Amino acid sequence: MKVGVLGGGAWGSALAHVARTAGHEVHVWSRGRPLEPLQEAQGLILAVPAQGVREVLTGLKSIVTNVNKSLLPLIISAKGIEQGSGLFMNEVVAEVLPQAEPMVLSGPSFAADVMRGLPTAVVMAANSIADARTWAAALSLAHFRIYASDDVKGVEIGGALKNVLAIACGISDGRGLGDSARAALTTRGFAELTRFAAKLGANPDTLMGLSGLGDLLLTCSSRQSRNYSFGHALGEGKSVAAALAQSRGVVEGAATVKIAQALARQHGVDMPIVDAVHAIVDEGAAPEQEIARLLSRPLGPEIRQG
Q1: pTM exceeds 0.85 for this model
Q2: Helix, strand or coil for residue 81?
Q3: Domains and CATH numbers, the chain
Q4: Looking at 162, 199, 238, 258, which residue is catalytic?
Q5: pLDDT (tens digit per residue) in 43-95
Q6: Distances (CA, A) of 160 to 60, 201, 305
Q7: How far apart are alpha carbons 106 and 123 in whole angstroms?
Q8: 162 labelled catalytic
């Protein structure tokens, strides 16, 4: 097939490499280049930062002409929530480009590992499990396994929120709080993630998979993660501006945490770790202050009923 990849960064390049290796004709678009070469694409992979998705989709309007044909498959690999609207990426696609069928590709994967051909497993979600399976099969390789899901919202929630929780773990390690603290943060963060997903109508079981627990485990413990590294810099005492400046690329969790915290409040979901990251990143709170607040919370049952 002819596959277009929107985004020439590390992850876009990695996914273009996957598509070419799978035997497809691939055209990569990056900012400043014309979009017209994508007109003949039979599927598009969206690999731009979450906060830039709306702008890129708006540009696509003029070249996506199959309004009265089958929907154009558009595979979203951006992980985040739009700041201004509070929409997840599939919702932005539905609003801006109704000619497209939004799918989501997510899971524990670093671009460098994919480019090196190291074993990686991710998940492809679509509203139709048949469509998810079709595109999972089309892009899977021996070392890049793609599983199928029909829970688009659940897969997107896992991808977006794990970035925020990775910042928390980075802060903990930057403060030298130890492996036990990181394990506790990861586990309690996962509890927040599943509560949030259930409240927003996703299948909680989805969060037990690659796009939830799998991605969380990876990004909460590796310096390859820009979100973890950003948090680590904050824990070492750097300002938010300085930590962002030293990042190798976009820190999606820093852009997502404010709207994630607002959505949690709106839906009545208790997310104290997300609250703490929001206070540090968006309100200038000191990491020590938020760590002390988390440690002073009342004790309760580990597993909440209902």
Answers
A1: yes
A2: strand
A3: 2-150 (3.40.50.720), 153-295 (1.10.1040.10)
A4: 162
A5: 999 999 999 999 999 999 888 765 445 789 999 999 999 999 999 999 999 99
A6: 24, 16, 25
A7: 6
A8: yes
